[in-house]
Amino acid sequence: MNLFDLTGKTAVIIGGNSTLGGAMAVALGGHGADVAIVGRNQEKCEQVVKQIEEVGGNAKSFSADATSVEDLRAVLADVLAWTGRVDVLMNCPGKNSATPFFDITMEEWDSIMDVNLKSVVLACQVFGKHMVEKGEGGSIINISSVSSEPPLSKVFTYSASKAAVNNVTKFLAREFAPSRVRVNAIIPGFFPAEQNRKILSPERVASIMSHTPMNRFGEASELQGAAVYLASERASGFVTGTLLRVDGGFGAMTI
Questions:
Q1: Which listed site, 167, 212, 251, 254, has its alpha carbon 20 to 30 Å from 181?
Q2: What is the pTM of this model?
Q3: Would you please indicate which residues are annotated as catalytic (active-site) residues?
Q4: Strand partners, 12
């Protein structure tokens, strides 16, 4: 028995055109899932589709604003028309900022909260409701951050949004458990990606390394195992409400 075989399953990856989302999408596709790559930048979505096809998987891109419930409902309808099912939802959208606390405007606050938190809630409402009502179980995987607990310096709004994602994850794990829909979050450590490179000054990199026992950044491919594990009901059927760290030991470090 292959614990990680996702053949016959359909995975919807919101923000699947991002660096980390794309890597995890390729892993799910490589293990047999049909993968819907959802994002606004269709050129990047198509690049991920091609990568999935190169490992023998089946994928299709869908255009949507993750903060729009209308867009997400349209994607659900389109995915059901494509494969007839949704078994896995992964929420990967992310927006960051290093604005000092006293300079944060409510416009910036709302923008980051919309992308990092509102999108997760909306996707769980739209796709989670489908999973719950269909009654065949499912897996929701939210992408959190090491900044969620404890909060990191310089990224106040981002940290607050990711702490809320952890709370939403645990709340929905409890709510959806009777329907066998599992809800977990992955807490990645430091994986240099497009959205965070601008705040990685030499001083901040040195600080990160001093707090990461493995003394290096993570590679996007190192999130793939966690994604496949949480997506597979055979592998993680009794796992829900979990915050799974993939952080090189960052969460175990004090002084």
A1: 251
A2: 0.95
A3: 158
A4: 36, 89
